[in-house]
Design brief:
Length: about 140
Amino acid sequence: MISRELAVALKRAGLVWHPESGDRFQVDLPGGVEVDLDADVFTVSEMTIESHRTSAGTILGFNGTTEWALDSLTLEDAVWLPREDQLRELLRGTFRSLRRLDDAFEVEVEIAGERLRYEHPDASEAYAMALLELVSRSR
C-alpha cells in the first residue's frame, strides 16, 4: 500500500478517483478539523461502505454499526490509496517495465519521449512516484 503522503500528493496533483468495491481510502478532512480517523484505512464495499453518486458529487456512505458516528463522507474528504494493479493501469501506455533490483523495485515509464525511472523498496510506491510525475505533467 502506498504511503498517505504520496496518496495526498497524487490527490493534490489532480488524480481523479471513481470509487469501486475493494478500493481503500483514508479520511482527509480539511486543515483544522481534528479527527482520530486519519490513520485508519477503510475499504469500499457494498456491505459496509458504499459509493453513492449524486448530483452534488460522490458520497461514501457508511452502512451498519460503527464504533463512531460517521454516516457519510464526501469524496473530497477522502484520500484514495490505490493498489499496485490500479497504479500500473493508471500509467497506461507510459509504463515500460518493472524491474527487481537488489534492494528495491524500479519502474520505468516514458512520458513525452523521455524515459524516467523511479526506485523504491515497495513496488507500489515506485509506481505511485511515476504516476505522480505523469499526473503533474498532465495538468
